[in-house]
Amino acid sequence: MTTVTGMTRAALRDRRAQLWRLAGWSAAEVLPAALSGLLTAHAVDSGFLAGRPGVGLAWLALLGLAVLVGAAGTHRSYALLGEVVEPFRDDLLRRVVRGAVAGAAGGRADDAAVARLTHQVELVRDTYAGLLMVVRGFLFAFGAAVLGLLSLAAPVALVVAVPVLAGLGLFAVALPVMVARQREYVLSDERLGRAVVTAVTGHRDVTASGARDRVTDWVGASVDAQARVERRLATMAATRGLTLALGGWLPVPALLLATPWLVRQGLGPGAVLGALVYVTRGVQPALHSLVQGVAAGGLRFAVTLDRLLKAAASFDGTTDRPGPPPAPSASPGAAVACGSASCGSAGGDAACPGAGGTVGCGSTGSLAPPTAPRAGSALSLRAVTFRYGPHADPVLDHLDLEVPAGDHLVIVGASGIGKSTLAGLVAGVLHPQSGTVHVGGSPVAGATPRQLADRRVLIPQEAYVFTGTLRENIDYLVPGLPDDAMDRAAARLGLTGLLARLGGYDALLRPADLSAGERQQLALLRAWLSPAALVILDEATCHLDPATEARLEGAFAARPGTLVVIAHRVSSALRARRVLLLDGRAALLDTHQGLLARSPAYRALVGYGDQGTTLPEAVTTNPTRGRSAPLPSGSAPRSSP
After folding, report:
1. How many Å apart are CA 468 and CA 475, to the nearest integer?
2. For residues 100 and 113, is the Cβ–Cβ distance under 8 A?
3. How confident is the model at residue 190 (pLDDT cuts 50, 70, 90)?
4. Who is most buried in 13, 134, 432, 537, counting CB within 10 A?
5. Is 235 helix (H, G, I), strand (E, B) or coil?
6. Distance (Å, rounded) from C-alpha 358 to C-alpha 348?
7. How far apart are CA 138 and CA 145, in angstroms?
8. Closest CA to 164 of 226, 250, 234, 58
9. What is the reported pLDDT for 552?
10. Is a pLDDT exceeding 50 seen at residue 15?
11. Is pLDDT larger for residue 411 or for residue 62?
12. CA contacts within 13 A on the Cβ side of 51
């Protein structure tokens, strides 16, 4: 909880001026409580009991004026509260968003981030405001009541203080248990949120596989677990009740029992009545607000804020993380493996013939030190290993890949084989457990988002379009781009008609109003205008028809720079200069025709089974012309896995 304490102290320290003003108006707010018992005592003893009702009413009139002052203080106190609370909430929101975005960019997306943003941040905001008001109210109201009691007689204050302090002591002892129960509640809420998000996002697969009852039971178990935690949390209400009975109600009978003794000490009936007013109108409400506020809002605030700060720190990289798992020395299973990720013979470093780039690995069992990328290389991977989770099989295992500037590479393979994972590693949104990735000769690791955006642009399968103008959606990678530049790019991609249909550059776009294909085309136009030399299209045309896909890929192939395409259709491979095949046991790099000749897996992928190496005339095609990288020649057997 030290982080919670530190953030809260920093927030209060930053708003010192507002807090001093809040304290001043709080003093005005408790003025009626401070004067109520004293003025009541004077009204009774000096006025009504003395046969001078006018004097008694005058004293009560003063109390009425104090109430008006207190009302003004309450009004200003609540107005000032927003100036203290809202900056705290904004800072917390920035931390949570920054952590969630950093986690997603690092390949560690968190389903519970939705619950944190939509529920837990607002919970902390509300409880922070409530806690400030509760503590402020207790300090000023209790302080006013004590001063009033002392103004009547010190023995009265002693009679009241003993049970109040006993009640506060009991509450302090029970507080750690309350914190633990509240922490259980927050964690169960997050587990339930993850379960619900997982079930909802996969509902089609659940329905198709007939697993509806099983998933319902799984989500129901999370609901039941949260209900059990809430019931345990509710049992702490008994402790709060005992605290209030001891510290809030016991002073009343104690004061009544002590009345004969107090009268013998010289207190009049008005003073005793005034003391009861201080207890029932000052001490009792103040203690009740403190216990209920801290036990409910205060615990939720401390536990929820602690959880938010730890989650945000963990995802944005500010906490210690375990080092990468050791590299495997045996077969990787369904991974692109060291021993098989080559275009040459088994063992040692292997390279595709010619200068068109390499796919290779270090020696099995001991990795050669990564070498620097070649001069003129657009993309270089050295001994890259990546796995989802410390105990999962590697998706890519000791993969080497060299892509020269100006190349047009298409990556193909079965679904789930690691194509999008490779795209994420190249783009820097995923980070390998071992090995290095260079883009444009510079390492991806450690690069800032701005630096990465200048080197590469990634268009994923689900294109990102936000609510805003068409211009804002197109040029945010190059703000201030003139209209004629966007017009030329739209014409080159064949999207002039789409932009006109959407209403022009200043038209307001709403993602829900666009089809998936329209969103993809806008994202592709944005990528075309990007200053990045490397374009990565990760099934970025999957919602488009084959003819439109061919037109757009052809335009990107002619764009200056390097193009890497994760193929949605095999036809993309026919247009490429080179093709990288991931088949779970090997990474093979060659031309389309070269892979047909040497890879049964590739022949099966394109629909020719194992018919040999002859490509039918109907599908004979030429790769992209005009690219700077020479083609690899010949073929090489796969290495042993």
Report:
1. 12
2. yes
3. confident
4. 537
5. coil
6. 13
7. 10
8. 250
9. 93
10. yes
11. 411
12. 0
Spatial distance between the Cα atoms of 167 and 284, rounded to a whole number of angstroms: 11
How far is it, in rounded angstroms, from Cα 487 to Cα 158? Answer: 84
Q: What's the rounded Cα separation, in Å, for the pair 340 and 488?
A: 45
Is 350 in contact with 343 (CB distance < 8 Å)?
yes
Contacts of 293 (CB under 8 A, 6+ apart): 130, 131, 133, 134, 135
CB 40 within 8 A of CB 270: yes
Q: Which helix (H) or strand (E) holds 56?
A: helix 53-105
Helices (H) and strands (E) in the chain, counts: 25, 13
User: Do residues 121 and 97 lie in contact, with contact meaning Cβ atoms separated by under 8 Å?
Assistant: no
Contacts of 127 (CB under 8 A, 6+ apart): 297, 298, 300, 301, 304
CA–CA distance, 85 with 11 (Å, rounded to integer): 9
Length of the chain equals 641
| Residue in the structure block whose two tokens are 């998706």 | 395
Q: Which two tokens stand for residue 185?
A: 């509640």
Whose structure tokens read 């795209």?
423
The whole-angstrom separation of Cα 445 and Cα 438 is 8
Q: Name the DSSP letter for residue 369.
A: P
CA 631/CA 316 separation, integer angstroms: 42
Q: Among 628, 452, 486, which Cα is nearest to 557's? A: 628
Which residue in this structure is represented by tokens 């990465």?
Answer: 452
Alpha-carbon distance 87 to 546, whole Å? 51
Question: Which amino acid is residue 467, in one-letter code?
Answer: T
**Segment holding 187, helix H or strand E:** helix 154-201
- % of the chain with per-residue pLDDT over 90: 22
Give DSSP secondary structure letters for 508-544.
EE-GGGS-HHHHHHHHHHHHHHSS-SEEEEESTTTTS
Residue 436 one-letter amino acid: T
Cα separation of the two ends of the chain: 50
The answer to whether residues 484 and 520 touch, using CB atoms and an 8 Å cutoff, is no
Q: How many CA atoms lie less than 13 Å away from 104 in the CB half-sphere?
A: 11
pLDDT for 528:
93
pLDDT at residue 580 above 90? yes
Confidence grade of residue 538 (pLDDT, cut at 50, 70, 90): very high
Report the SS3 class of residue 57.
Answer: helix
Question: Is 562 in contact with 530 (CB distance < 8 Å)?
Answer: no
106: tokens are: 């690092």
Provide the residue type at 138 as one letter.
Answer: F
Q: How far apart are CA 410 and CA 279, in angstroms?
A: 80
The amino acid present at 253, given as its one-letter code, is P
Taking the C-alpha atoms of residue 614 and residue 597, their distance in angstroms, rounded to an integer, is: 7
